[in-house]
């Protein structure tokens, strides 16, 4: 009897750990999802473990065997990629949030910019300044930036001057530190960085909509994971996302 009690006590931490949920989420969702997570856990939900990075990096980690319960991408492309590889439970996929693409500059050097036809991006960057953004080869923020600059006829000039970062937050940091005179990030990123300010907003018709699809993964498909995804679509989570500047989809 004592042996059984001892075994049960030893298994308690393992059972608790098994109930934890691992969330792989785009870096731009960091503060908002932490806010939502506190509400969820405060109501008795499973403990959340977050892994924030570029959507491309997270998708590849999952493809290489990393186990998550929920994946949140900053674009449809990388969610499509995981779906094509059978990494997500497709019946759970839903787009919950939207964002805005903006140009940021160091706060002490910012000047308003009208982004549109005739915009002189090179004059803004100066003789050797670089434009910080996510790597357009795979990071969603960079992919949106390439679309916008291409639409404006500026991509050929801008491409050699890019400071390509492994995530939108890395790009934001380059601008905040003054290592790049300007960067292309999301409005919600600019809101959490005291050292930068928004200089201009890219017109919505210059790029695909910035949207965030969420899904439960096939490897981590549990009732708790599905419950958390339902919670993310609920009123309390929507209010928390809105406070961080995200738009409900």
Shape: globular
Distance between the termini: 55 Å
Number of helices: 11
Query: What is the CATH domain class of the largest domain?
Result: Alpha Beta
Total number of beta strands: 11
Low-confidence stretches: 1-18
How are the strands of the biggest sheet laid out side by side?
Answer: 2-1-3-10-4-11
- Main pleated-sheet profile: 6 strands, mixed
User: Structural class of the helix and strand makeup?
Assistant: alpha/beta
CATH homolog superfamily of the largest domain: Periplasmic binding protein-like II
Binding site for molybdate: 28, 55, 141, 168, 186
GO biological process, one term: molybdate ion transport
Pfam families: SBP_bac_11
GO molecular function: metal ion binding; molybdate ion binding; tungstate binding
How would you characterize this protein structure?
- This protein has 249 residues and is α/β, with parallel strands linked by helices.
- It folds into 2 domains: 2-98 and 211-248, D-Maltodextrin-Binding Protein, domain 2, CATH 3.40.190; 101-201, Periplasmic binding protein-like II (D-Maltodextrin-Binding Protein, domain 2), CATH 3.40.190.10.
- It is 41% helix and 22% strand.
- It has helices at 2-19, 30-42, 55-63, 76-84, 121-125, 140-151, 155-158, 168-176, 187-191, 223-232, 235-243, and strands at residues 21-26, 48-53, 70-72, 94-99, 101-106, 131-134, 162-165, 182-186, 196-201, 210-216, 247-248.
- The strands form 2 sheets. A 6-stranded mixed β-sheet has the order 2-1-3-10-4-11. Strands 7-6-8-5-9 form a 5-stranded mixed β-sheet, sandwiched between helices.
- Helix 2 (30-42) packs antiparallel against helix 11.
């Amino acid at each position: 009897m004592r042996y059984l009690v001892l075994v049960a006590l030893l298994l308690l931490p393992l059972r608790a750990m098994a109930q934890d949920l691992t969330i792989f989420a785009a870096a731009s969702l960091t503060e908002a999802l932490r806010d939502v997570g506190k509400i969820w856990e405060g109501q008795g939900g499973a403990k959340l473990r977050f892994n924030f990075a570029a959507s491309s990096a997270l998708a590849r980690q999952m493809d290489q065997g990393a186990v998550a319960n929920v994946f949140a991408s900053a674009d449809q492309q990388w969610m499509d990629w995981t779906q094509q590889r059978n990494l997500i439970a497709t019946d759970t996929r839903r787009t919950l949030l939207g964002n805005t693409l903006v140009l940021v500059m160091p706060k002490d050097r910012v000047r308003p910019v009208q982004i549109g036809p005739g915009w002189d991006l090179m004059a803004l960057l100066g003789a050797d300044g670089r434009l910080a953004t996510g790597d357009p080869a795979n990071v969603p923020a960079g992919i949106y930036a390439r679309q916008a600059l291409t639409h404006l006829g500026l991509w050929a000039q801008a491409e050699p001057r890019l400071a390509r970062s492994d995530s939108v937050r890395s790009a934001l940091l380059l601008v905040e530190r003054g290592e790049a005179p300007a960067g292309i990030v999301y409005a919600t990123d600019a809101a959490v960085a005291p050292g930068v300010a928004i200089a201009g907003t890219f017109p919505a018709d210059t790029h695909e909509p910035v949207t965030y699809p969420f899904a439960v993964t096939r490897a981590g498909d549990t009732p708790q994971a599905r419950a958390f995804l339902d919670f993310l679509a609920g009123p309390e989570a929507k209010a928390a996302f809105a406070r961080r500047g995200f738009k409900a989809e």
